[in-house]
């Protein structure tokens, strides 16, 4: 019957039925393929999400844990964020034109939170604060407020959400190096003092050590300390005992302890040691009890471990800096003083180079320029890396700060040029093995030439040995490009290379006085800082210059000695008198220098300075005691009897009369 019906059906109906059956088969097959494809695709979701997190194409939920919820909430506004950001940027520019900076600051904060994964927003906001807004302020405190806000925006927020953005590291290194570290801003000294005080509150005064290696290892204690105070207290009974005794004196193991140590436990001669009529009163009893507890030798080890732990916590919380990375940099580059902006520029540039290696979207120019700040930081450490600092913790801008050269970083900068040069340009056909590469070689040659002169003139066996090694390297690796031979300026002996310019400056009596006087000043400056070896080396250079001039110019019998310099001992005592009366030299440094001088130069200069000493000490509020700060040298009565005319005009000289 069925066969009969099918045979009686028209052909088009038969084909329709066959098509329906075929369509259902295709649908079933497509559905099966779709299910299999979805199951296969699901296996790639997690790896793709991991790649998106790794390359910062999306916000990592882990990075917002424990932070205020506004960031997480604002990132869920979808495409409305783009409209809001456009509107807020227009409003931002209007606020800037109207000088409404505090409202502008709040608006910048909202924009950054709306687009936490857009590095350019953070860069713009930080630059606006540190540069555009800061220069509209008229007080040093007002300027520092905005410079600091710009730094903190990048350092404590932007980099936490964009830790693989090379541009943010570059921007932060630039602000530290240029805005704070350079000398172009009218209030740059305030920025340097504020930063130094801010860091010293956490790290305390620099430790007294005998070598660079010891200095670095002291920081290693911070890197190795537990990350949480409760972990230290759980494992160290001596620290627990110390904390218990501190509690009896109302001293807690927190930032207050770090601040107390920074204020009261600096070594060496201090202002309190030279004050006049200092009396013990009951108000200082608690303070003195705290000092006695913290300086008790029995608690020394426990206190160091406690401070190391608290300092590590402070670095991570307040500066978003990793003590382990800081310690590694000190091992690589020497005894970095973290109170200096150049050390921070070096930290963030090197951190950026490390964190962004292998990034798919890495900008090669940004990468190369970020590495340059390692060089810039180290070069400025050579030129200005010895920080002379007497902090005023209550008003940092009134602190005493001075920057001196530090030759300890010369070899580290040399090695950094070689290492980064090969990393950046090792595949470049222009790269020559053993050099800093095509883009870095000019800077490398410059620091080698300057460093060789600095090391040799500072003197000392270690410095002179390193100067000789660097000079041989320079002669061997930076040869004439056309001939492949040693360059002409390096064919002379090391001493001639170093002192050629020095000799050329001794061309006249006036220039010789200036050059020798500069070396004498440097000698006194180093001695005022306790740098005995550097002081002696500078004094030897002054004597060498005196001998060279006297041999070449002063012993000319034809001019009756008119071009002859005074005896070097007299020039030295004159330099002491001038140095002691310089208003830009901190009084503690003058007192330290006076008590470090040999007996003879003190005797030669004392009578010329006694009135100044008494006046300067009396002028201070509270007054200093000149007998403590500038005590009279031994044997002055006998010296005066034997040298009655040292400071008086010679009566045997006829000066003539005006016609």
Q: What class would the helix/strand composition place it in?
A: mainly alpha
Number of helices: 30
- Low-confidence runs: 655-659
Binned, the helix content reads 55-70%
Number of strands: 2
Average pLDDT taken over every residue: 83
Q: How would a textbook summarize the main sheet?
A: 2 strands, antiparallel
Q: What would your notes on this structure say?
A:
The chain is mostly helical. Among the domains are: 2-45; 70-185; 207-333, no CATH class; 518-642, no CATH class. Helices cover 67% and strands 2% of the residues. It is built from 30 helices and two strands. It has helices at residues 2-8, 11-54, 70-74, 80-97, 101-114, 119-133, 140-161, 166-180, 188-203, 212-224, 229-235, 237-248, 255-264, 271-274, 285-294, 300-319, 323-333, 341-355, 364-384, 410-425, 441-458, 461-477, 494-505, 509-528, 532-554, 568-580, 587-596, 599-619, 626-629, 636-642; strands spanning 386-390, 400-404. The chain has a two-stranded antiparallel ribbon with strand order 1-2. The radius of gyration is 35 Å and the shape is globular.
List the helices and strands and how they pair.
Elements: H1 2-8, H2 11-54, H3 70-74, H4 80-97, H5 101-114, H6 119-133, H7 140-161, H8 166-180, H9 188-203, H10 212-224, H11 229-235, H12 237-248, H13 255-264, H14 271-274, H15 285-294, H16 300-319, H17 323-333, H18 341-355, H19 364-384, E1 386-390, E2 400-404, H20 410-425, H21 441-458, H22 461-477, H23 494-505, H24 509-528, H25 532-554, H26 568-580, H27 587-596, H28 599-619, H29 626-629, H30 636-642
Antiparallel strand pairs: 1-2
Helix pairs in contact: 4-5, 5-6, 6-7, 6-8, 7-8, 8-18, 8-19, 9-13, 10-16, 10-17, 18-19, 19-20, 20-21, 21-22, 21-23, 24-25, 24-26, 24-27, 26-28
